[in-house]
Write a structure and sequence with these properties.
The protein is an alpha+beta fold. It is built from three helices and seven strands. 37% of the residues lie in helices and 31% in strands.
Length: 156
């Protein structure tokens, strides 16, 4: 019995480590895209005219009626485009072209994600509900996680 428990924890630890490795590899791939924003910032003239899609980026600042900055993978990337209805801290998805001469993304279109705060709140509510419901639904008995109804009800 003890060897099964030890093996179970090793499997859980290995799965957790695999998740971390996969997340790190994904991040490495995104940052090293040959035509992504990091490449455009590193080689502005060579990648002039490159089409960029910047999904779920934060507006870092609005600098005028046709200039703003976005941040996520890179910080304070300058954008030339429509700033109507845009505020610092909003989340947007931006499609544009890289202009290497002055290091600016020229916006083709953007979408402001107005429901993003509500999505975050809904996710948090789901997490809280799961944390409250788990001890009411499950119990730990004899080294196994079991449904409380299998143990004779919530008082077992």
């Amino acid at each position: 019995m003890a060897s099964k428990d030890r093996l179970r924890w090793l499997v859980v630890a290995a799965a957790g480590m695999l998740l971390v490795v996969l997340a790190a590899d994904y991040t490495r791939q995104v940052v090293s895209l040959p035509d992504g924003i990091p490449a455009c910032l590193a080689h502005p003239a060579e990648l002039d005219g490159t089409r960029l899609v910047l999904p779920v980026w934060f507006v870092a600042g609005v600098d005028g009626p046709d200039r703003y900055r976005v941040s996520r993978v890179a910080k304070d990337v300058p954008v030339q485009g429509d700033t109507q209805g845009m505020e610092r801290g909003q989340v947007i998805t931006l499609v544009g072209r890289w202009r290497g001469a002055d290091g600016v993304v020229v916006e083709e279109r953007h979408q402001i994600h107005t429901l993003r705060p509500y999505k975050k709140a809904l996710s948090l509510a789901g997490l809280v509900l799961a944390l409250v419901a788990a001890p009411l639904t499950f119990t730990w008995r004899d080294g196994y996680l079991r449904l409380r109804r299998d143990e004779g009800g919530p008082d077992a």
